[in-house]
Structures
1.
Amino acid sequence: MTESRSLAGTLRPIASEYRVLLAATNGQCAGFLHTKLKGYLSAIGCVLYLGDYDLAGNDIEANSRQIIKELAGTPPHWERLAITEAQVAEYGLTPIVKKDFRFKPPREFEAVECEALSQKPIPDIVRNRLEELLPEPLSSVLAREEAQRNTLEAAIKAAIGDQ
């Protein structure tokens, strides 16, 4: 799950490759979670979350997590993959100052947005974590899938040829 649609777009090929669900909350979006995600929650054992490292990002994550917990009954394991305090230090990310208009008057807070990490490390972070979660390497699964497909195709051709 990502906070932004643009980050979800970047991760879509990886989600497809690993056959995992991908959703972008696009901010505080209780409606989206209720209407689009609710039907999938029984199949979700783990949520890997990517969002900005700031007050608003933390609030969006907490809100999404609470809604999913309420909808699912049994909350899935939740893990924040990016941006974390450790990543800010590891990659030397410099916070920017953002105005938070949820406050009256608006307040300024430091923020490190996912985009600060660039498009190379984030897919690697996601791919590495997905590999760790798999019971066997994806390459083995894909090779078995290909062998099964070939066996099925041969059986179909043999059956059609027998007619």
2.
Amino acid sequence: MIVVDRPGFAGSEPAECVPQIEVQAQALSPLLAPVRGQNILLVGQSYGASVATLMAATATRPVQVLALISSYLGEPGPTARLLVATGSKVLNLIPRDLRNAVVEISGQGAQMPMVRDALMSVRAPIHLIHGDQDDLAPIDAARRLADAMAAKVPIRLQCVEGANHFLNDGPVETLLGALEACIPRPPARPTWRWPTWLAPLKAKPLATLGPVTARA
């Protein structure tokens, strides 16, 4: 499992915000370099859902599953609206990560058509994992997205009861359980059946079928 800080956050450079979703996706895409025998479950959380979507759409090697957790896709809830409205007035006074988050959200709307087009081009199964108490990115927005895309791409919405926007900060069992539910199960091994024309042989004891001669 590889977990990264997106460009402009925590331990990742640069210090300033990188508002272009496409640039962030390009910076993180080397993580998807092909490795023999490895399947990729690509996860994007909150604003990172847009970044992960572009990564999956442009990957040189297809990802097997795209999971979008608490996806923030341009439709803010009440807490997000308050964050942007307040943070925009005091950008120079708030911590770097919070400042960059406000700048990102403020400029995301104009980039959403590109993100939605990219989502439509992803051929891997898409899983939307969302808490029903999310007041930053309402689950209703995820439902509308799933309903609008269901006829065109393989997409599934998983509602997590009682969870808020920060599923990644909640009980680890809940998050891992949601992610494991996204992993496709291997196909069942085919069961060999006797052809109908061999049924008489199946019914006879082996000893009655006559001698067997082996030749070198």
